[in-house]
Write a structure and sequence with these properties.
The structure holds 2 protein chains of 2 kinds. Chain A is of the alpha/beta class. Helix content of chain A is 37%, strand content 15%. Chain A contains 16 helices and 21 strands. In chain A, strand 20 and strand 21 form a beta hairpin. The longest helix of chain A has 27 residues, at 361-387. The relative contact order of chain B is 0.13. Helix content of chain B is 34%, strand content 13%. In chain B, strands 2-1-5-3-4 form a 5-stranded mixed beta sheet. Chain B has a two-stranded antiparallel sheet with strand order 6-7. The radius of gyration of chain B is 22 Å and the shape is elongated. Chain B folds into 2 domains: 8-118, Ubiquitin-like (UB roll) (Roll); 125-255, Fumarate Reductase Iron-sulfur Protein, Chain B, domain 2, CATH 1.10.1060. By secondary structure, chain B is α+β, with helices and mostly antiparallel strands. Classes of the chains: A alpha/beta, B alpha+beta. The interface between A and B is large, with 85 and 83 residues.
C-alpha cells in the first residue's frame, strides 16, 4: 500500500513556500555537475525544467519522441497565461488568483500547491518577457491583459491567439541555449517505454529510437516526467495525434500512483465533429468568449434555419441567462454542460444538432472588423480553413470537446511521486487544478513547475543521494526493463490481425465519450467497464501492426500508445464510478442539484483518489489523500 | 452553409523510400470515395489503413497537431510545399481544393540539410542546430526584472510577433531552389532583434546563426522569395532584408571591436 505523504510544509498558507525554500537542503554548486537528471518531454514544463536545471549545473538528458522539442503540443495553446500582477488595477492579487483557482477546481485540489502556483505566477511573466516573448502590449509599451473564464478580473497575458506557441518557443530557446552550451544532451525521436526502479527509487528509463528501432538504457539520479495529458484516450480531442499517456502509464505500472484520472476537462468551444474520418477536434480559444456571445435558437424549429434568419428575440443567450455574473465567461465544465443540455433539448445548430453559435456580430459592431481581427485574427483563419466559413460574416458553430486532463500521476508538495526519485511536472501530474482547470492556467502551471518549483525541490532530494551513487545500466533491473520493452514490441508486431490500430482507437474513443464523457451514470460506467476490457481483448487478438520493429514504424508507435489507453480508459471509468459525487469536470447524473449544477459530497469525497497498480489483471488499489482546507471555506460553486 | 460536395476519387503519386541511403521512387495509389471535407492528412490515414489491410507498408509521413501550428507536417503537394493555398500547412489543406480524377504528386521537403528518413519524412534537426547556436536571449531563470520594467513599443511587439510566428516547418527551404534557410533564420533574428530584451546579444546572435546555417549546407539567398510565398504563416521576406542589415552591421562592428586589455602582451 503506497504511502501518500503530501509533505505540505507547516505554517500559514501564504508563508509555506517561502519557508520551505529556506528549509530545503541545497546541493553545492560544485557538486551539481555530478548529478545526472533525465527529463522526459520538452513541452512547457519539460523544456523549462531541462533548461533551468542545466543552468544550475546539473547534467541533463532530455528525451522527446518528436523530431524537435519545438513540436510539443504546448505549442497549440491559444488564449493566454494567467498571473496575479494586477497591472489592470482591477482587484487582482495572489490571494484572488489562488481563490479563483481553488473554487474553479471545485474544492478538489491541494490548497498549498495552488497558493504556490499563484505566488510564482508573477515570476513567470517576468521570465517570459526577459526571453523576448512578444506579449501583446498597450501603446505605452506595457503589457496588455484580457479576461478568461472563471475570473472577474483581467489577468491573462497573451500573444494574439498563439500564446502557447510563444511561451513554448521561449522555453525551447532557453533549452536550445543549454543544448548548445553542453548542459543538456538532447535525444529526439526517442520514446520512453519503461521506467527503471532500483532499490525502490526511480533510477532510469528504457528508450526506443523511433527511427532505428534501437532500444537503449539510461541511468540517472532522478527522473522527471513532463509528458502531458491523457485526453487522447477519447481518441477525438484537441490534443495532437501523438499526445499519449505511455510514459506515465509505464511509471504507474512500476509503482507510481495515478490520481483522479476521472477529472477530465471538456472545453466548450471547439469545432464540431463532421465525419467518421475526422482525426481531431480543433480548439477555438476560450479568449473568444471575451467578445463572442453564445446562443442557440429558443425554438426547436429554428434549429436548421441559417443564423441570420433567427431574429434577436428568438435567440437564447443561455450562458448569459443562466449565469448572469459570469455570462459567457463561465468556467469550462459549466459552459460545456450547458451546451450539452441545450443540444439534448433539441435546439442545437447544424445538421447533427451538436453545435451552438459563438456570435461576433455585436463585437464587430462595437470594435469593427479590424478590432476583432487584431485580437483573434489567426483563430478566425483556422476556423475558416477547417469549415470554409467566415466568422466575420456568420457565427461560428462550436461544440464541447476533450481538451485537458486534471488527473495524472500523484505528486507531493515537492512534485515527487510516491515513488522516490520520480518527479512529475505539468499536465502529467495531478496536483494543482482539482476537478476543473481554469482557462489560461495550464500554461501557468507548466512553467511554474519547470522554472520555479522543480529547480528548488529536486535539490532537496538529490542532497540525500550521494553523488556517483546512481546505478550502472548493467544492473539487473535495467536488463529486466529492457526485456519487458522488447517483449512488448515483439508481441505487438507478431499479432498481424485484421484491423488497424485506428479501428480500436476510434471504438475506445466512442465508448469513453458516450459513457464517460460530459455526463456519467452508474449504469453507463458499468457498461463501459465491460466493453473496454472486451475491446482490449480484441485488440490483443486482432490488431494489425504492419512492418517490423527495426525501422521507422508509425503504426507500431501508435499501437503501443493505444494499448496503454485501453488500460487507462478502464481505470478512468472505475475512478468515475467510485467517486459518487459530481465535481468540476466529473459529472454524475445521480448527483446534481435541481438546477443541474454539480452536487459535491464533501463529507465522503473531499480527498484525492490515488490508484496503485496491483499487477496485470488485478483490480488496482484506491488510496486516498484527504484534502484539508484551512484558508478557504468549501462552498457550493456558484457562478450565477 | 453546409460545405460538403460529392465524394471524389484521386490518384496519389507518392514518394516511397524505405530508408535514408536506399533509392526511392514514386508509387501510385488510388484513393477512392473521399469526403471533400477531409483534410489531406486524413486522406493519407485512410489510404494507410487500406495498405495495412492488404499487408503493405503504410506511407510514413510526419504529422502531429493537425491544426497548422506545430510545424511537423511537411508535404510537397503538386510541387508546392504544404499544397496549393497560401498561409496554410499540409494538415490544413482540404480535399475541397482538389477535383475528382486529379493526380496528386506527394513528396517530402527535400534539401541537402534535410535528408530523407523514410518515405515523406525528412530529418530537419539542422533547424534545431541553428537555434542552438543563437536563437535565444540569455536570461537565467529567476534573474528577470519585472515584466513591465522594460516597455516594448506596440509596433515593435507586433512586428516581432509577426516574425515569431515561424513554426519551423522548413517549407521555406523546400520551396527555395538554393535550399536557403534565410527566411527561417531571419524570422528568429528579427523577432529577438526587435525586442529591447534582445539587444545585448543582437550582433552575436545574427553572426552565430548565419554562420551555423552556412556550415550546415543551406544555400545562399538570391532574393527570389519563393520562401515567403510557401510559408504557412505568411512570414514576410522583409525580415530577410532586416537580417541582412543586422548581419552587415554586426560584421562591421566585429571588425572594429576594441582589443581586450592584456591581449597585446601588455602589463598583467
Amino acid at each position: 500500500m503506497a504511502q501518500l505523504d503530501s509533505k505540505i510544509p507547516p505554517g500559514p498558507l501564504a508563508d509555506k513556500w517561502r519557508r520551505h525554500k529556506a528549509d530545503m537542503k541545497l546541493v553545492n554548486p560544485a557538486n551539481k555537475r555530478k548529478y545526472e537528471l533525465i527529463v522526459v518531454g520538452a513541452g512547457l514544463a519539460g523544456a523549462s525544467a531541462a533548461a533551468t536545471l542545466a543552468e544550475l549545473g546539473y547534467q541533463v538528458k532530455n528525451f522527446v519522441f518528436h523530431d524537435s522539442p519545438r513540436r510539443a503540443h504546448s505549442i497549440a495553446a491559444q488564449g493566454g497565461i494567467n498571473a496575479a500582477k494586477n497591472y489592470q488595477n482591477d482587484g487582482d492579487s495572489v490571494h484572488r488568483l489562488f481563490y479563483d483557482t481553488i473554487k474553479g477546481g471545485d474544492y478538489r485540489s491541494r490548497e498549498a500547491n495552488v497558493h504556490r502556483l499563484a505566488e510564482v505566477s508573477v515570476n513567470i511573466i517576468d521570465q517570459c518577457a526577459a526571453q523576448g516573448v512578444p506579449f501583446a502590449r498597450e501603446y505605452g509599451g506595457l503589457l496588455a491583459n484580457r479576461s478568461f473564464g472563471g475570473a472577474q478580473v483581467s489577468r491573462t497575458f497573451y500573444a494574439r491567439g498563439q500564446t502557447g506557441q510563444q511561451l513554448l518557443l521561449g522555453a525551447y530557446s532557453a533549452l536550445s541555449r543549454m543544448v548548445g552550451a553542453g548542459g543538456v544532451q538532447l535525444f529526439t525521436q526517442s520514446e520512453m517505454l519503461d521506467l527503471v526502479v532500483v532499490g525502490g527509487q526511480a533510477r532510469g528509463i528504457i528508450v526506443r529510437d523511433l527511427v532505428t528501432g534501437g532500444i537503449s538504457r539510461h541511468a540517472a539520479d532522478a527522473v522527471i516526467l513532463a509528458t502531458g495529458g491523457y485526453g487522447n484516450v477519447f481518441n477525438l480531442s484537441t490534443y495532437a495525434r501523438g499526445s499519449n499517456a505511455t510514459a506515465i502509464w509505464r511509471a504507474y505500472k512500476r509503482g507510481a500512483c495515478l490520481a483522479n484520472p476521472c477529472y477530465t476537462q471538456i472545453h466548450p468551444t471547439c469545432i464540431p465533429v463532421t465525419g467518421d474520418y475526422q482525426s481531431k477536434l480543433t480548439l477555438m480559444s476560450e479568449s473568444l468568449r471575451n467578445d463572442g456571445r453564445i446562443w442557440v435558437p429558443k425554438k426547436k424549429e429554428d434549429r436548421l434555419k441559417s443564423p441570420a434568419e433567427v431574429p434577436e428575440a428568438d435567440r437564447d443567450y443561455y450562458l448569459e441567462r443562466m449565469y448572469p455574473s459570469f455570462g459567457n465567461l463561465a468556467p469550462r465544465d459549466i459552459a460545456s454542460r450547458a451546451a450539452k443540455r441545450v443540444c439534448d433539448e433539441g435546439r442545437g445548430a447544424g445538421e447533427s444538432g451538436l453545435g451552438v453559435y459563438l456570435d461576433f456580430g455585436d463585437a464587430i459592431k462595437r470594435l469593427g472588423e479590424a478590432g476583432v481581427r487584431e485580437r483573434y485574427g489567426n483563430l478566425f483563419d483556422i476556423y475558416h480553413e477547417i469549415t470554409n466559413e467566415s466568422a466575420y460574416q456568420t457565427p461560428m458553430r462550436i461544440y464541447p470537446a476533450v481538451h485537458y486532463t486534471m488527473g495524472g500521476l500523484w505528486v507531493d508538495y515537492n512534485l515527487m511521486s510516491n515513488l522516490p526519485g520520480l518527479f512529475v511536472l505539468g499536465e502529467a501530474n495531478f496536483s494543482d487544478h482539482g476537478a476543473n482547470r481554469l482557462g489560461a492556467s495550464a500554461l501557468m502551471q507548466g512553467l511554474a513547475d519547470g522554472y520555479f518549483v522543480i529547480p528548488y525541490t529536486i535539490g532537496d532530494y538529490l542532497a540525500t543521494q550521494k553523488p556517483g551513487s546512481r546505478p550502472s545500466t548493467d544492473a539487473p533491473e535495467f536488463k529486466q526493463a529492457e526485456e519487458n520493452v522488447r517483449g512488448l514490441v515483439a508481441r505487438l508486431l507478431a499479432i498481424k490481425g485484421r484491423e488497424p490500430v485506428s479501428h480500436f482507437h476510434k471504438r475506445l474513443g466512442k465508448i469513453m465519450w458516450e459513457l464517460c464523457g460530459m455526463a456519467r451514470t452508474k449504469a453507463g460506467l458499468e457498461k463501459a467497464l465491460k466493453e473496454i476490457p472486451a475491446l482490449r481483448g480484441e485488440f490483443w487478438q486482432n490488431v494489425n501492426v504492419p512492418g517490423a520493429g527495426g525501422t521507422l514504424n508509425q503504426s507500431l508507435e501508435s499501437a503501443g500508445r493505444v494499448a496503454d489507453f485501453l488500460e487507462l480508459g478502464e481505470l478512468l471509468c472505475l475512478d468515475a464510478l467510485e467517486r459518487e459525487e459530481s465535481c468540476g469536470g466529473h459529472f454524475r447524473e445521480e448527483h446534481q442539484y435541481p438546477d443541474g449544477e454539480c452536487k459535491r459530497d464533501d463529507e465522503k469525497f473531499a480527498h484525492v483518489a490515488a490508484w496503485e497498480f496491483q499487477g496485470e489483471g488485478k483490480k488496482p488499489l484506491r488510496n486516498t489523500e484527504p484534502l484539508n482546507y484551512e484558508a478557504v471555506k468549501m462552498s457550493v460553486r456558484n457562478y450565477k | 452553409m453546409e460545405n460538403s460536395k460529392k465524394n471524389i476519387s484521386v490518384t496519389l503519386r507518392v514518394w516511397r523510400q524505405p530508408g535514408p541511403s536506399q533509392p526511392g521512387k514514386f508509387v501510385d495509389y488510388q484513393a477512392k470515395d473521399l469526403n471533400p471535407n477531409m483534410s489531406f492528412l486524413e486522406m493519407l490515414d485512410v489510404v494507410n489503413d487500406g495498405l495495412a489491410g492488404k499487408g503493405e507498408e503504410p506511407i510514413a509521413f510526419a504529422h502531429d497537431c493537425r491544426e497548422g501550428i506545430c510545424g511537423t507536417c511537411s508535404l510537397v503537394i503538386n510541387g508546392k510545399p504544404h499544397g496549393p493555398h497560401r498561409g496554410v500547412a499540409s494538415c490544413q489543406t482540404y480535399l475541397r481544393s482538389f477535383n475528382d480524377g486529379d493526380v496528386i504528386v506527394v513528396e517530402p521537403f527535400c534539401a541537402h540539410p534535410f535528408p530523407v528518413v523514410k518515405d515523406l519524412v525528412t530529418d530537419r534537426s539542422a533547424f534545431d542546430k541553428i537555434m542552438q547556436a543563437g536563437g535565444f536571449i540569455t536570461a537565467r531563470t529567476g534573474s528577470a526584472p519585472d515584466a513591465n520594467a522594460i516597455p516594448v513599443p506596440k509596433d515593435a511587439a507586433d512586428l516581432a510577433m509577426d516574425a515569431a510566428q515561424c513554426i519551423g516547418c522548413g517549407a521555406c527551404v523546400a520551396a527555395c531552389k538554393n535550399a536557403s534557410a534565410m527566411l527561417f533564420v531571419a524570422a528568429k533574428v528579427s523577432h529577438l532583434g526587435l525586442m529591447p530584451q534582445g539587444q545585448a546579444e543582437r550582433d552575436r546572435r545574427v553572426l552565430a546563426m548565419v554562420q551555423t546555417m552556412d556550415g550546415l549546407g543551406f544555400g545562399n539567398c538570391t532574393n527570389q522569395y519563393e520562401c515567403s510565398a510557401a510559408c504557412p504563416k505568411l512570414i514576410s521576406h522583409d525580415f530577410i532584408a532586416r537580417m541582412n542589415r543586422d548581419y552587415l552591421g554586426a560584421t562591421f562592428r566585429a571588425a572594429f571591436k576594441p582589443t581586450p586589455a592584456g591581449a597585446g602582451g601588455g602589463a598583467g
